[in-house]
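Subject: Interface between my chains keeps coming out wrong

I've been trying for a while to get a sensible model of this assembly. When I model each chain on its own everything looks fine, but I need the whole thing in one frame so I can look at the contacts. Pasting all components below, labels as-is. Any help appreciated, I'm running out of ideas.
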Amino acid sequence: MTYDASVRKDAAGATAPTGARPFWGRLVQWGPYRAFAALATASPRRQFAILATFPILWLLTQHLGPMVQMGRVSLLDAYPVAPGTPQTFTLDNYMRFFGDSIFWMPFFRTLAFATILTFCTLILTYPVAYFLARHVSRRNQMLMLLLLLVPFWVGEIVRTYAIMILLGNTGAVNLVLKWFGLIDRPIPFMYTGFSMGIGIVYLTALYMLLPLYSALEKLPKSYNEAAADLGAGAWTRFRRVTLPLTLEGISSGCTLVFLISTGFYATPVLLGGPSTTVFSETIAGFFHVAGDQWPTGAAFAVIMFVTALLITGVFQAFMKALRKGEKA
Amino acid sequence: MNRGNRILLSCTYWAFVLYVFVPLFLMILMGFKDSKFIGFPIRSWTLDWYTGVFSDSEILYTFGYSVVIAVLSTLISVIVGVWIAVLLEGRKFWGWTVTFALMILPALVPGIISAIAFRIYARLLGIEPGMGAIVWAHAVHNVPFVVLVVMARLSTLPKSQIEAARDLGADPLIAFMRITLPYLVPAILGASVFCLLLSFDDFVRSFFLGGYEPTLPVLIFAMLRSGMSPEINAIATVALVLTAAVGIWAERFTRRANKENQA
Amino acid sequence: MTKLILNRRHFMGTAAAAGAALASPAYLRRAHASGGEVNIWTYNDFVPEAFKDQFEAETGIKVNVRLVDDQGKQFNLLAAEQPNPTVDIMTVAGHRFLQFIDSELLAPLDTSRLSNWGNINPTFSESDWATINGEKWGAPILSGMEVLSYNTELVSEEEAMSWDTLFSEKYAGQTAYIIQDMMSIVMLKMGYDGNMVEYMDDPEKAAAIVEEAKQFLIDKKPLVRKYYDSGAEVQQMFVNQDIALGHSWNGPAAALINDGFPLGMTIPNEGSYGFVYTYNIANNAPNVDNAYTFLNAILASPEIGASMTKASGFISTYKDASNFLTDLEKKSTSFPEEQLANLQFFRAEANELKYSLVDPAVEAVKAA
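Reply #2:
Try treating it as a single job with all components included. I did that and got this:
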């Protein structure tokens, strides 16, 4: 696909054989459009303004708007505001988190889980992405990648229940183990950190796999070959060549997975056990149980979100430093 | 490359495929169970749940409703997403980082928070709950995914092509339409499939912004109250087969588009 | 499934027959003239399909049902929509009235406009929770209760007669319950008023009791397999044999029993709480007249109540509804008299005090 310089000539002659060209050609020749184009492209600054106006407006009203509104609710003393009463702003909702230690446990637990699960997802998906990007012919890459993504299209709830009948006491795994005579009594997999992890990696793998795959795919094969020519073993080649060059992919994958996994709700609630309560459950509680607790829920959501952002910020900075170190 | 390593890697891949597909297989299997509950042991089998799906007009209607919402929201996401990607990729301007952060925000906000934020905001904007509101929320939520995918593709577009076009007198809009956009087709398709799936699968936003017609996940969630029945598995399986068909078609299409691009 | 369809079909036939008797033509004709629609938020299977079709055909009022899955979401949605809600009728549990009433989300019910009000069993329509501020706020349709359900192949009926079995070492790792509900039951089991109405004037005592119940549940935490939220979860745990016994609502347990699963349920000797789902009219409802027409129609015959029971597993509040149930259905939706004697209803009066103490306690148990 290259730009065809004959476009304009064709249009002038108005005898172009294909359908697309006359349209663009005619458009270019059309008086009002030319006037508009001349006006719009008069200066780079104006060009940029035209390009940027809509996205900026969209981002401010659609992306930022809801969050600002939520931030505002988090500062209210009651929401919805009862008719006829004035709105009162307060920091109490935030203080409630810092004032009561029962909220800290799920909070730190969530951060710890998110960290561990991010790490597990990375370890599990890196070889998969590596295999896809380096050992599968280009023709089949997309298909095999797609194969991995198919199950993500099944709704979270339905899939979670499928995991229950996989890991339950009379679940598929226990049935198979029993059938082989490896166990007498079923192993209680369900409602533990393990079953929760199994369910969550399902949700996070996709977000890790794609950045890793695209980072690995971009990596020129010649680098590895050169290193091999120099006598480097497979492990050294991986550690010294592949890994440093995919740090960016690792960093963006981990960031995405970490942030998203702080917000999982249904899967941990359904697959977790009594001692795996996560913070989103706490937050959701404020929205489910009683109406006047929306502001507290919103405040807790803000706390979680800001903390997660800070952590990923530090992580990104660390990865950047690491990359610089590798390059030097 | 070392043969042993290669085999080991291929084993991890297939082990991962197994991990991903076993629950899926169980889900499909349970759709044939003749009981109101899923789980082992399966004493007898039936096709009734499937015939039920195709003869229940509410389920079919809900399915169609979800598809329409997915398509409309994807259209909006793609248009807005491509526009933002073009603005962000390869340009340096004051406030770039802030713009990028704002762009990615909806993807990072945990589900329930984003749903409630949208609900509160919809009220402020005067958007009535219903199809319009769901389409809007899905569209906003999916924009970052489009932007990221499109930006990745855009970064590999040889600058020389655009410059050549500009040298030949094409204004930016024409250059965009004739060169950039065709080059982006595979990325746009990939992002669209992703958006369609995200929208089709979304529960929280659809629930909070929906009116009297449920989307498929909302219907499933409500049905769950009377038990996790094989009927739900049958619905999910039918939905899966249909979405998989779309996915395979999109992959084929992308591959063809890629070939044409290379030619 | 085959059975289910047959039941539905069967019901449709009889409902059509009952429809003739149901019609109190005067109000139907009037409503027909007005036509329009009525918007309802309710749970899956709470508005029988056959009844809905019949009602629409006879009155010309279109019934829009929005399925919901819990009380909190209805509250949040309605709160977000007021003062111009899209809903006419919603489904609130009796003991949650107060929260909705305090937020001015519900309109009081004018029972004089419901000629079929008398078809409701007075146990439900005239109960202590049903009248607040001197007004009726909802039409009772289905009743549920907190029961102890158990796998009859693993647990004996005798054991199942006490809540203590749920906390025994013998069944460690094989039990599950909803913590919020369990808090009330534990208080009752300890000899206190789980509704906290008695302690409304003595918040310190109330706090001490909640603290005691909380400590009990924390002590017993190592023995529990799962704190769950929804009926589908507890059903799945029984099917997977992840648990041998658990606290549950009777509806989900009844559904398992009707499917042939070896499950039993009891109201243990220490007692338990019941609750009632009611249809309520929203404050500022857009179609009030249609809402009353609908309520009166759905209360018209015990057969409609029976069909709601069949679908949901909860107990009908209609007089004589059990006449229309099969033996298995009767078994799964009824209890011996001596067990029912131990049942009391949740009450709303002290909810503000109760939940201000119980909600943090629940968080603390989960966090422990």
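Reply #3:
Confirming on my end. Chain A has two domains: 1-40, 97-327.
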